[in-house]
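Morning!

As promised:
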Amino acid sequence: MIKGLLKKDLYNLASYKTSLIIIVIFCGVAIIGTDAIYWGSVVIAIIVGMISLSTFNYDEISKSNKYILTLPVTRKEIVLEKYILAIGSTILGALLGFVLTLIIGNIMNYLRPDDLINISIEALLATTVGGIFGISLIQSIQIPSMFKWGAEKGRIQMFIIIFVLVLIGALAGFLLKQSGLSIDIEKLESILNQIGLLIIILISALMYFISYKISYKVYKNKEE
Amino acid sequence: MNNIEIKNVSKKYEGFLLDKISFNVPAGTVVGLIGENGAGKTTTIKAILNIIKSDSTVKIFNKDIHQDEKKIKQDIGVVLDDSFLSDYLTPKQIKSVMKEIYSTWDEEKYNQLIKQFNLPENKLIKDYSSGMKMKLKIATAISHNPKLLILDEPTSGLDPIVRSEILDIFRKYIEEDETRSILLSTHITTDLEHISDYIVFIDKGKIIMNAQTDKLLEDYGILKCSKEEFSKIKEDDYVSYKKGKYQYKVLIHDKNNFKKKYNMTTIDKPSIEDIMLFYIKGER
Amino acid sequence: MNIIITNSSGLPIFEQIENSIKQAIFSNELKEGDMLPSVRSLANELKISFLTVKRAYDELEKSGFIKTIQGKGSYVAPKNLDLIKEEKLKEIQSYIEKIYEISKLSNIPKEEVNELFKMIFEEEL
């Protein structure tokens, strides 16, 4: 049953694919422009994760929720499906961010051999996990609020969050470059290594779990 | 055997009360739910399907909807006026979703219906006309061979030719297996005269009539008479009346008995719409 | 078999169906053991409620024209001569009533009508 709902959402997103590709390219270019290469994995993870949330908008435009409640699926399954989609998109976004950043970094190094960027896998891993943490936080807040108030209000929130994040990322990269400092990735990495990337992922998982519980409570008594 | 049994379904909204709605949908019958827009038809259907919570007993196939919801819904096909799986899917994608949802999904039947209705398989639903969209919704609703169809305004906004096509689909559906039932709500009552076996009439959240369609059309009559004649009619012998400049029109609920009692014979056959209008707009 | 339903006739629809089927039985169009259409399919065909058709079938069964076997369907019952005679007598009676009406309206005395009767019957003999 959940598989059916997942298919529905994936088909909905498929009609989004052109915009998705454009966004990813745009961000890639923006990142190259600022030289803040490590932010790439964060931004891509977050954007992919955000896009999965837009299935709420598709449902709202088509007024799908009322119809879905007439199907032999429980309210629990309806909520669970959105979390499966969200977590799936986070994992996909993180992988995509990791790989793309690696590729873009190497291309840049190849194009500009005089201005080499030191790409450390450990540092990239750390920023990717940072991205996972960021998007899981956003999703954990957004999903229950979309179940409660609908996607329309949630969408405004989403754009604000994306905008602010991109802005902060770009600004930070720009400022760091201007001030002549390089991002002390090693230091950041060592901090993260001390806390342990695993713990951060566990915290993300916990946020999803709590968020799911809240969403279910909200949706259990929702009337369409 | 009843496919649907509801008792005392009540629901309160701001400025609206659905008040203790009770009726049955027997196996093998088509029941029409009629009433004005906003009378409570859709609310009743939502309560039956447990989309909204209500204080009530709702039994479908003799099982409580609040307990066996998922199991019951495997055997129901639903068409809602304003809601469907998604506008951004094609019929082909709908098929691939639905076969994961219904264990008895009949792909061949769906394909055949899509063909019969001339629906383009790879076109997004949002680009469909309203008639095509409704046909697709109906094809989707009957392709898992449900025992019960619940249809909210399945013919509203459609032209007469499409409407008659759709009614034929319903007739065929119920003829295929005579334990099936259909509950449909509509405000286009002419459709009901040719398909429904029972009529449940809701007005302002209350049931004001629940009757056999043929009895209704046979027993009721519209008397045309003068003011003087009207004054002779006892209050128990009519439902309501409309005062005109040159004549009175009176809705009578037992015309054979009326003919015996009074010497007035200009009695016309009413349509369901006439009856509905007399109930809602007539004077008493 | 023809079943013609009209709203302009004063007869209720179930009675119109009943009469059509009786007629088909009398004219031997429907023979003993022939199966009648199922209630639902006839209802769909005529675009009326199946309860109306059911009522017509029930009436036909009550008066012995058809037999219904649960789960199988309805069949034309073996012809019952008394039943047919009774039906035919009813038909004759309605014609005689018509004759009576005409003679009364046109002031033709009973004797003259009787003469006509005699003439027709004796001619035959």
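Chain B touches chain C through 17 residues (CB under 8 Å).

Hope this helps with the figure draft.
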